[in-house]
Amino acid sequence: MQKMTANETDFFGFGDSSIKGAIFDLDGVLVDTAKYHYLAWKRLAGELGFDFTEADNERLKGVSRARSLEILLEVGGVSLAENEKEKAASRKNDWYVEYLLAMDDSALLSGAADYLARLRKGGIRVALGSASKNAPLILERLNIAGFFDAVIDGNAVSKAKPDPEVFLKGAEALGLSPELCVVFEDALAGVEAAKRGGMKVIGVGKPELLPGADRYVSSLRDLC
Ligand code: BG6
Ligand code: MG
User: Fold this and answer.
1) Which residues line ligand 1 (CB under 6 A)?
2) Which pTM value belongs to this model?
3) Which of 24, 27, 167 to mutate for ligand 1's pocket (most ligand atoms within 8 Å of CB)?
4) Which residues carry out catalysis?
5) What is the pLDDT of residues 74-88, one digit of tens each?
6) Which of 48, 100, 109, 166 is such that its CA lies 20 to 30 A from the CA of 180?
7) For position 1, what pLDDT does the model report?
8) Closest C-alpha residue for ligand 1 atom 11
9) What stretches of 122-187 show up as alpha helix (H) in DSSP?
């Protein structure tokens, strides 16, 4: 993967200094929480009597909690009444939160804190654009809340990615039009959401697994 040079004013590797805002997905971009989501969903699947593999878990990245449960039930060929679905999602979340409460700085992905600091220092406005309703807890646990001018999370949106709502709200909260913002995403649904919102997207991950982004980094360390 191409290493981007950290030139003083080219924060994003586009050679374009018109970008004034950066909107970050959380899980898989700033923090390594996918493993905790996986363990909690797997435990739920086990209770419901089927196995849930890491490959199945790939389908849940970037997807809301309610939609994740639908996918999990589809994998297991299980159907639940609406009230049972709510209880199941809430049980899964309780287990997930237990992991979050035990997490420390080592869960931050490579370069995340350094790059956020670099953007702040350079006067770039920074927002979070995440599907997670646990975002405030994660930011607080990892001591990174202070980097953000705005936090738009799963509590603030009514439409899940690939709908652009979360990123459009992020740009609006930063006081910037979408074309002045770049989104960082590790999930297909997020890349699509950002493109639909009229923003540039930097894919964090392998290009072949994340088609549609404007450019790619293997981690934020590439941009530090
Ligand atoms: C996204 C994750 O960031 O948040 C998904 O990629 C997750 O896997 C979604 O389902 C919702 O998270 P939470 O914390 O509200 O259950
Ligand atoms: Mg993600």
Assistant:
1) 26-28, 37, 60-65, 68, 93, 130-134, 154, 187
2) 0.92
3) 27
4) 25, 27
5) 999 999 999 999 999
6) 109
7) 47
8) 132
9) 135-141, 165-174
